[in-house]
Amino acid sequence: MYIEIRTLSEKFGKFFLTATLLLSFTLAHSQDENVEPAAEETTEETASEGGGSDELIQVGVTVYEENCTQCHRFNSVVVGPALKDAHTRWSSKEELLHFIQYPQKVIDGGENAHAKELYDQYKQYMPNHDFLSDNELEGLYAFIVAESTNPFHEVEKAEETLASADGSGTGGAGTGVSEEFLMVIIVILIVILLSIIVALTLLMGLMKRFVDSRDDISEEEREYISPGFNLVAMLRSKPFVNTVVLLFVLFALKSGIDGLYSVGIQQGYAPTQPINFSHKLHAGMYEIECQYCHTGVTKSKNANIPSANICMNCHNSVKVASPEIQKIYAAVEKNRPIEWVRVHNLPDLAYFNHSQHVAVGELECQTCHGPVEEMEVIQQYSPLTMGWCVNCHRETLVKAEGNEYYDKLMEFHDGENAGMTVEDIGGLECSKCHY
Ligand code: HEC
Ligand code: HEC
Ligand code: HEC
Ligand code: HEC
Ligand code: HEC
Ligand code: HEC
Which of 167, 177, 200, 246 is the most exposed place for a label (fewest CB within 10 A)? Predict the structure, then answer.
């Protein structure tokens, strides 16, 4: 009997060590991944599944980054729908590619029910992409299929964001996923380890009592049994202490590195506001224009937060009895502004102008602020780092056609915008953004 108890406790010790080592290995490995995304591997896999060659997919990636990312992501709604599995929502490749080229024609044609549904939902036409070549269209299709079945592009993007030293990035989906997954694995492992400890302790107690109740075991044998199971000694043993220390150091290192990358970045910041004001309700359900409340957005540097008087246009008759609305009344009566907590906050050294982007650049609010009309509580959607501003200026074409601000410039270009980005009009000059 005592032999069995000994082997059991030895086995337990070994198992515990293996499990902790496994745990620390998972942790260490996850760090490697962050530093060196295994780009080539994944792309190859995707190509074989997605039915397009690497080259073709690469063409698609380029077209997508140049023409589509201001409105689309794969896993989230931006201005247009999430593109994941888009190919499955159309009856054929030709139909989908035709839609991408001539969305308005397809929608207005009224024969395609899915296109009509999309329009009813998004209430705006996607611009025509009739300038894309057949090869570029094929590339887009291959990329959509590949990214849907085996995402590589946006995951890579997120990893680049993590790895790039200036903390730049375009913001958006993907960053948190692998981390959450890792946490789940760790928690599961810890739970398993703890339950094993509990089960074994119970079992040991039981067996010990059984042994104690027998009188055919000699004193010598008894002595041999008790040190066989000594939890305290095991917890104090060198290998155990070492693994715990190792784990602790790895954890500290990881959170330290994560912390460094996000110093000063408040992406996702969503403070509690003094009044439970919902954009989802006002801008989403009731479709009140952003400009109705943010009156400065097309005319000046600042978008403005609406004064209580603007709320009163409606709330002197809507939901008057609600305690939240009563707070608006109180503010008006005391002639004191509502103390909204500011969400977005560029440092003073940077200059950002809304009308430049919204009126002249013709950008949608959602490009920078995300799907505000779905937010119950408003939050900071983009990182607002210098890298974020600069990246967009490198990638975005100036909307010069039919834009009176550019009439002069266009005369030199025969009325066509041959790939002129914000960078080309001086959007990367330090003095444009810094006082
Ligand atoms: C200015 C914003 C905008 C740009 C740029 C844009 N789209 Fe769209 N896209 C939309 C909107 C809005 C819809 C919804 C349909 C509609 O109302 O026209 C849409 C719909 C789609 C759909 C259908 C999705 C589905 O669920 O079936 C696909 C596919 C698509 N876009 C692909 C692209 C591609 C590829 C590009 C780049 C070449 C692109 N879009 C560029 C706004 C845009
Ligand atoms: C009915 C009025 C109203 C409408 C319509 C409205 N907003 Fe707002 N918005 C507010 C108020 C009030 C606040 C401040 C309270 C808060 O943060 O929730 C605010 C805050 C914001 C902020 C954060 C400001 C900060 O502190 O940094 C953004 C960004 C924003 N709105 C964008 C939008 C966009 C985009 C739309 C259109 C889709 C929109 N809003 C429509 C009233 C409105
Ligand atoms: C254009 C009209 C309009 C404007 C302007 C407007 N609201 Fe509203 N608001 C509504 C409507 C409609 C409802 C929904 C009432 C209902 O649920 O029956 C609502 C609901 C609310 C609610 C939820 C009340 C509750 O108890 O359910 C709050 C809080 C609120 N609004 C705050 C504000 C604030 C703050 C402003 C000013 C920044 C504002 N609203 C401006 C139309 C407006
Ligand atoms: C090119 C990106 C971009 C676009 C497009 C954009 N914003 Fe902003 N928005 C910002 C930045 C950056 C800030 C932070 C400004 C600061 O702190 O000085 C901001 C701040 C705000 C604020 C806080 C108050 C203020 O003026 O600083 C509101 C409200 C707001 N935006 C609303 C809107 C609305 C409504 C639209 C669309 C009509 C819009 N924004 C379009 C980037 C953008
Ligand atoms: C989503 C893309 C986008 C983002 C993000 C963005 N911008 Fe811009 N920006 C533009 C476009 C497009 C224009 C060109 C507008 C025009 O036609 O003049 C522009 C123009 C400008 C200009 C004028 C440049 C010139 O040469 O006249 C300044 C200054 C500027 N942006 C500052 C910023 C700052 C600061 C940020 C970050 C806080 C920022 N932008 C983020 C798209 C963006
Ligand atoms: C398109 C706009 C834009 C351009 C162009 C730009 N910056 Fe910036 N810069 C910003 C913004 C926005 C911030 C604030 C970002 C933050 O707090 O993370 C910033 C921050 C900085 C900071 C402070 C960094 C810190 O950690 O506080 C320095 C230094 C700086 N920029 C230098 C430059 C220099 C030098 C150039 C020219 C080569 C330049 N910037 C061009 C937008 C720009």
Answer: 177
